[in-house]
Design a protein that fits this description.
heterodimer, A: two-stranded antiparallel sheet, 5 helices, 6 strands, elongated, B: mainly alpha, 3 helices, about 65% helix
Chain lengths: ~200, ~80
């Protein structure tokens, strides 16, 4: 028996698959953490656009959505979300997350306002099979949907013109209901034309 | 005397041994779900950290999200230098 080179082939194949499996896991984890950071930035940039004052709250949401779509469509970022490795929502979740996300408002507590932009993030590339050694998710269905989380940025939201004007109108109504004593004339008898609005920075 | 047959038997035995060991290792990996414990198990805590800022599953860490923290302010401020 002169040719003995085949003896080690079995061992070599076994070890090679194992090493490649570990390599694939390290690559997938590195990519996932990288893209999670990229996605986090996209929500941050969208939340920044959402925060800035505008005419109405709807226009603020529109600005946030536009930035989200712009960054998702970026020629570099779009590769991450269209090759099947990662997935995010087509449209972001915008608003006060303490009202949107179940569990952020515990019964009997007063939740803080968490205005911002968020999206569901699924790292599908983390689920794969390594020959001879099994898969990376024993409970998975092969789609990688178990590797999901919610990424969001909360920067608050500035008041809009319409909300400011509405507040001013409501304030005049409340002032007219104030109790006045000492022989002073009540506000309720004052004409609407006598109410002058002086708001900081203008509405 | 041709002794090559003895070597062949020896190689077959070694090959069998390698295959058996490889199979045992493979079965052990699958039964212990080694790779799943390396990836899927930590992801649960990692997703909780990404979502709620706490190293635990999202379902348990959601109660620790800052949205339900008590509001805190300082009425003293920083000590003047």
């Amino acid at each position: 028996m002169k040719n003995r080179r085949g003896m080690i082939t079995v061992d070599f194949l076994f070890a090679l698959v194992l090493v490649m499996g570990f390599g694939a896991i390290l690559f997938a984890l590195s990519m996932t953490l990288t893209v999670a950071e990229v996605t986090q930035y996209i929500t941050f940039a969208s939340a920044r656009n959402y925060m800035a004052a505008n005419i109405t709250p709807q226009l603020q949401e529109q600005k946030a959505n536009l930035k989200y779509q712009e960054l998702l469509g970026n020629s570099t970022f779009v590769q991450f979300y269209t090759n099947g490795w990662f997935e995010v929502d087509a449209t972001p979740t915008i608003g006060d997350m303490s009202q949107v996300i179940a569990g952020y408002q515990q019964p009997g507590t007063t939740p803080n306002k968490f205005w911002g932009v968020g999206t569901n993030f699924i790292a599908r590339m983390l689920e794969f099979q390594i020959p001879f050694f099994g898969g990376t998710d024993a409970a998975g269905d092969g789609s990688g949907s178990n590797f999901n989380t919610f990424l969001a940025s909360y920067l608050g939201r500035e008041i809009t013109t319409s909300e400011c004007l509405n507040f001013m109108a409501q304030r005049w109504g409340a002032m007219r209901n104030l109790p006045v004593g000492g022989g002073m004339a009540p506000y309720s008898t004052a004409p609407d034309g006598g109410y002058r609005v002086y708001d900081d920075n203008g509405c | 005397m041709n002794r090559r047959g003895a070597s062949v038997v020896e190689y077959v035995l070694i090959l069998t041994l390698l295959v058996v060991v490889s199979t045992l290792v493979s079965v052990s990996f699958k039964q212990r779900e080694l790779f799943s414990n390396m990836v899927a198990a930590p992801w649960v805590r990692l997703s909780g950290l990404l979502q709620n800022g706490q190293w635990s599953s999202p379902s348990s860490s959601i109660a620790m999200h800052p949205s339900i923290h008590e509001r805190h302010i300082s009425t003293i401020g920083e000590t003047p230098r």
